[in-house]
Amino acid sequence: MSQIKTIVALLAGCITIGPAQNNTGAQSQSQPPRPSKIRVSVEIMNGLIEHKAMPQYPDEALAKGIQGDVIFKIDVDETGKIVLAVPVEGDPLLAAASMEAMRDFRFRPYLLNGTPVGIVETQLGYHFSLEKKDGGASGQVEPMSRVPYRIAFRTGVVNDKNVLVLSPRKVSGVKPQLPPELADKSGSVYLTITIGEDGKVRDVKVVGGDAPFIGPVVAAVKQDVYEPQLIDGKPSVATTQASFHFGPQR
Predict the structure, then answer these.
(1) Domain formed by 168-246, architecture
(2) Is the pTM higher than 0.90?
(3) Domain boundaries of the chain, sorted by first residue
(4) How far is CA 211 from the centre of its chain?
């Protein structure tokens, strides 16, 4: 455990590009303050990936037979660039290799009410695996499409640090059923979803997107059920953002 804590301290600083700009002073007093940071689920951010950068399997890790998952908490700025990465799980050697790759990782901007968000916090993971061969082993690295669920990503309210958490836990739902004419088309839909005390979707508002995709997406989202959000131990109404992206990735 002490070894991974050491690499967190060493590596977190080396990928920090600069502090997030604070524009709250320029906001009109009639407008509510924008959260300083928005936390978004891995599944949503995976739909915004523009360029995946893969780590090189370290020779030392190959020689020692080291494999497994490496998971980071990351901050993504409004241009889609990772500006901060903190390893939270995994072998330090594999984490170091992953840090280098993340310098070239890119996302499309996350939009909130049609405006790119300054800083988005999410998670990113790589899976390192070994395949034994005659005379040695070869290594393979894959991005993780799902990251182990963390309780820190459960609530749907602005906390005392002015961080808006956007990922209540969905427990059931269906995928949007697109008509055949949209099968090979590209499009996106951005939604604000209100979840009732019982965990069922109470309201869906369309923030933006491509018109042909909106109907099927909204119809599917209305069937979703979430884990009820607890505030002071009591079920509460929660609001979350969701984005859906279709078609080939660029």
Answers:
(1) 2-Layer Sandwich (3.30)
(2) no
(3) 2-17+35-151, 168-246
(4) 25
pLDDT of 30-83, one tens digit each?
444 555 678 887 888 888 999 988 888 988 888 888 999 998 889 999 899 998
Two tokens, residue 231: 């505030």
**Rg of the chain's alpha carbons, rounded to an integer?**
20
Amino acid identity, position 241? Q
Q: Hey, what are 239's tokens?
A: 């609001």
Angle at 243 between CA 176 and CA 54, to 5 degrees: 105
Per-residue pLDDT tens over the stretch 85-125? 888 888 888 988 888 888 889 999 887 767 788 888 888 99
Q: What CATH number matches the domain at 2-17+35-151, 3.30.2420.10, 3.40.50.300, 3.40.50.150, 3.40.630.10?
A: 3.30.2420.10
Query: CA dist 231 to 36, 38, 98, 144, 154, Å?
Result: 21, 19, 37, 31, 11
- 39, 73, 91, 163 from 88: Cα distances, Å: 16, 7, 10, 20
Decide: residue 222, CB within 10 A, 0-12 exposed, 13-18 middle, 19+ buried.
middle
